Amino acid sequence: MKTLGVNDIAYTEVDSNFIFEGQQILYKNAIVITMEMKKSKIDLAPSDITNREIFRTYYELGVDVNKGAKLLRKFGFNVQAGPAIGGAVNYVLLARAAGLGEIGKHGLLINDKFGPSLRIAAIYTDIENLPINNKNTYSWISDFCQKCQLCVKACPGKAIYKTPLVFENNTQQHIDYNKCAVPFSNQHGCTICVKSCTFYKQDYYKLKEKFTING
Ligand code: SF4
Ligand code: SF4
After folding, report:
1. What gap in Å lies between CA 194 and CA 165, rounded to an integer?
2. Helices (H), 34-90
């Protein structure tokens, strides 16, 4: 998959709570992939150039999951491609379960290479012997977010909850989507939450070291 422009790949069993209401997937395991949104384009947010970069990653991830699914079918496996946009599963929760990052206060996945400047897609399969992830080295980010709150202050719509809503099935909501829709629509897109994130602007490992020492 990495030859297709994918940056990270990991595996997890899909928690049924991650599947959107009224949606279904065919197989219980997921191959989860991420792709970087280029910094040079995200730096310009909000802008048409930024929007084109977002849709480039949606498009290329869509091509990649279909290519990957086709290849796996050739080897006789049962698979279903999950596109980066309009998927049946909450990808942020799925990627966290696969160990690919942690969910920031802004509700986006954060990893060590690109901070929150990435998109996610998946391939669902019944392959049983995948190296399923069972640890997450990123979980410290949640504590960091409690002290940071930079995206909460930077959001032009005041749409990011200081404390995420937590539902009975243990899923969370980080954004008031009605409030987010206002600047998002007025500016033809926003992406300020990506651009303002501490993990977008600073080196992940330096932040981790400093936070671990100073708490
Ligand atoms: S996209 Fe903009 S308005 Fe919406 S949550 Fe992010 S920063 Fe706030
Ligand atoms: S800006 Fe700060 S609080 Fe918001 S997601 Fe990034 S690290 Fe967390």
Report:
1. 20
2. 39-42, 48-74
Phi, psi of 72 (to 5 degrees): -65, -35
Query: Ligand 1, atom 4: nearest CA belongs to which residue?
Result: 180
Hey, which residues does 8 pair with through a beta bridge?
A: 34
Q: Kindly compute the dihedral angle of the four CA atoms of residues 86, 87, 89, 92, in this order, to the nearest 10 degrees.
A: -70
Name the residue among 131, 82, 139, 88 with its Cα closest to residue 110. 139
If one residue of 145, 160, 191, 201 were mutated to test the ligand 2 pocket, choosing by the most ligand atoms within 8 A of its CB, it would be 145
Q: What is the DSSP letter of 14?
A: P
- The reported pTM is 0.94
Count each helix (H run) and each strand (E run) in the chain, helices first: 9, 8
Specify the 3-state DSSP secondary structure of 99: coil
Quick check: 5 pLDDT over 80? no
Centre of ligand 1 from the C-alpha of residue 90, in Å: 18
H-helix or E-strand containing 174? strand 172-175
Ligand 2, atom 8, residue with closest C-alpha: 145
Which of 92, 149, 160 to mutate for ligand 1's pocket (most ligand atoms within 8 Å of CB)? 160
Task: Quote the CA–CA distance of 47 and 200 in Å, as a whole number.
Answer: 18
- The predicted-structure confidence for 68-100, as pLDDT tens digits, reads as follows 999 999 999 999 999 999 999 999 999 999 999
Expressed in angstroms and rounded, the spacing between residue 194 Cα and the centre of ligand 1 is 9
193 CA to centre of ligand 2 in angstroms: 8
